[in-house]
Specification:
about 260 residues; alpha/beta; 2-enoyl-CoA Hydratase, Chain A, domain 1; four-stranded mixed sheet; about 45% helix; about 15% strand; Enoyl-CoA_hydra/iso
C-alpha cells in the first residue's frame, strides 16, 4: 500500500496501523485523503488477516488538525463543493460500517475533521496531550459529520459547546463526556491502542462483526442528506469566503452582521 500520499499503512499482523502522514502540516486532511482512507480500509477488510485497525497521526503534535482549509477555497462551484462534502461523509460511513473495529489513537490535536474521524471510530484512546475541537464556525461552516454523530457519542449539549462556541476539550474532559474511552501516557499511546486491537483480534471475528453492527443499529444514514445540503449551502456564503480568507491571511474574520 505504498502508493498512498496522505497515509501510511502497516499491516504485518492482525492489527493494522494507519498513520495520517502529513506531520509537517499537522496531518491536515486534503481532498486526496478521503478516497485513500476508504481504499486502505477496503483492502484491509479484504485481506483475511486483519482483525482490527488503529488510526493515528504521524509526528508528535497532531492526530489531525482538520481539513486543509486553503484547499476548501480552491473548490469552485456548488457541484464541486457538494461532491467534496459527499466524499468526506462516505469516508466517515466507511469507518463506521467497516466490519473491522477501528481504534483512534489520538496523539495530539484532533480538530475539525480530525475530531470527526475520532467520532467515526469505534473506540478512542488519547494521549494526555490530546485536545479535541470542532471550530468550523470560525470560518463560517459546521462539521458536517460531527453535528450528526457528536450528540450520540457525548450528548447534544457538549456537541453544541464544541460546535457553536468552538470550545476545545482536553483529554481528561473528552474522557469524562464519553468522546474518549481511555487516556494514557503520551509515549505509551500507540502500544496501548495496538494492545486493545490485539485483545479484540483474539475474539471470534464473526461475533465482533455482529456486535459492532448491532451496537451501531441506531446510526441513521438518512441524516446525511440534510448535512450534505446544509454544508454545501454554507460553503457558498460570503461568511465562509471571508473565514477562509482570514484563516489563510492569519487575521480575525470579519463576518457579516458583526
Amino acid at each position: 500500500m505504498s502508493e498512498y500520499t496522505e497515509i501510511t499503512v502497516k499491516d504485518d499482523g492482525p492489527v493494522a496501523v494507519i498513520h495520517l502522514d502529513r506531520p509537517e502540516k499537522l496531518n491536515a486532511l486534503t481532498v486526496a485523503f478521503w478516497p485513500q482512507m476508504r481504499d486502505a480500509l477496503a483492502r484491509l477488510e479484504a485481506s483475511g488477516t486483519t482483525r482490527a485497525v488503529v488510526l493515528t497521526g504521524a509526528g508528535d503534535k497532531a492526530f489531525s488538525a482538520g481539513g486543509d482549509i486553503a484547499g476548501f477555497g480552491e473548490l469552485e462551484g456548488t457541484a464541486a463543493k457538494r461532491a467534496f462534502q459527499a466524499d468526506c461523509l462516505r469516508t466517515f460511513a466507511a469507518i463506521e460500517e467497516s466490519p473491522l473495529p477501528v481504534i483512534a489513537a489520538v496523539n495530539g490535536y484532533a480538530f475539525g475533521g480530525g475530531c470527526e474521524l475520532a467520532l467515526a471510530c469505534d473506540l478512542v484512546l488519547a494521549s494526555e496531550r490530546a485536545a479535541f475541537a470542532m471550530p468550523e464556525s470560525g470560518i463560517g461552516l459546521v462539521p458536517g459529520f460531527g453535528v450528526l454523530r457528536g450528540p450520540a457519542v457525548m450528548g447534544r449539549h457538549w456537541t453544541k459547546w464544541m460546535v457553536l462556541g468552538g470550545e476545545r476539550l482536553d483529554a481528561a474532559t473528552a474522557e469524562r463526556v464519553g468522546l474518549v474511552q481511555k487516556v494514557v501516557p503520551h509515549d505509551a499511546l500507540l502500544e496501548e491502542a495496538v494492545a486493545v486491537g490485539e485483545r479484540i483480534a483474539r475474539a471470534a471475528p464473526l461475533a465482533v462483526r455482529v456486535g459492532k453492527t448491532m451496537i451501531n443499529r441506531g446510526v441513521d444514514r438518512g441524516e446525511t442528506g440534510y448535512s450534505l445540503e446544509a454544508v454545501t449551502m454554507l460553503q457558498e456564503t460570503a461568511d465562509t469566503a471571508e473565514g477562509i480568507a482570514a484563516f489563510t491571511e492569519k487575521r480575525p474574520p470579519r463576518f457579516e452582521g458583526h
